[in-house]
């Protein structure tokens, strides 16, 4: 005798705005009337409580979400209220990821960025959307460096419009104007404000909020940053990778198809900064043993508009590498005579198919790199001999 087919857990996810007199279409109202177990944020509960059946059970969506999912267990159907479009950085995506076997029915509403665009009558078809809600700065920094014309940003209580404006001003991205929407959809509290970045950096905002950045001028990044424009270590021009060598080094690293780049011995930060501007999708992690590197990286990354470089000061051989994103491209800008130990550490974390590049200034350093590469079971796969002006020749060596 065949066993009965077990029904999949069903989630009805209803998008809504902050309107205290929100309107739902008939099919959504029918789902609410038929429901017994409901879920959402406290703000959602305040709005929909009068519509729920008397015997309704409510499950608050709070962190940690594992506790919320445990409460969902054993209920064949749960009606979830979410803000805006639940598939737009919303809770429906979380359900799809965490409960892939569950069945979903989604009823979307306008998301907050759509509401804001409509409030200011802004065509938004080509708007780059970034969520900073519980997320790092990576996608936002990439949008800035790429100079996107329109950037729509979902905020949270930490990454506020004021903090976003300050970050933009810190890195010289004053070529945008900001419009902030607060409590969108809440007729009594909604507020839409166009602001300069300076004004936004000093203002306070009601939560929830979101914002749209409109580019007012194009900020260009040179392909090849002149070394004379960098803050230098003790003013020593020989302590920076020269621009032609820097560009050739980046080409050998093949960064267009990499995801995580380590720059070891960054000194002025020139290689990291050039890589950040030319390949803004990259996660860049940089290391420098000298304390002076801290100020140099901070000054130079701000001067050239290169946010998001994760740099570490201290001995690379003693660094906690396990907590960092594993690289698929590594540039060794300095080794302090400990190349073999450095290569052993790199070999343990380098992703399959990754590449290591080293610029040798002498036959001794060439031999040292070959020996260190061989010691970890790899081999040198490319060499390029380059001379720039009256400087000593450089051999750009790569191991893959």
> Fraction of residues in helices?
25-40%
Strand order of the largest sheet: 13-12-11-14-15-17-16
CATH topology of the largest domain: Rossmann fold
Poorly predicted ranges = none
Q: What separation lies between the terminal Cα atoms?
A: 59 Å
Structural class call reads alpha/beta
Q: Major β-sheet, in short?
A: 7 strands, mixed
The count of strands amounts to 17
- Quick one: CATH class of the largest domain? Alpha Beta
Q: Radius of gyration, rounded?
A: 27 Å
Order of helices and strands: EHEHEHEHEHEHEHEEHEHEHEHEEHEHEE
The helix count comes to 13
Mean pLDDT: 93
The CATH superfamily of the largest domain is identified as Vaccinia Virus protein VP39
CATH architecture of the largest domain: 3-Layer(aba) Sandwich
The gross shape turns out to be elongated
Describe the secondary-structure layout.
Elements: E1 10-16, H1 26-34, E2 37-40, H2 42-48, E3 57-60, H3 65-72, E4 77-83, H4 91-98, E5 103-107, H5 112-119, E6 128-131, H6 138-146, E7 150-154, H7 161-170, E8 176-182, E9 191-195, H8 197-201, E10 209-215, H9 243-253, E11 260-264, H10 270-278, E12 283-288, H11 292-304, E13 310-313, E14 329-332, H12 339-349, E15 355-360, H13 363-375, E16 380-386, E17 394-399
Helix pairs in contact: 12-13
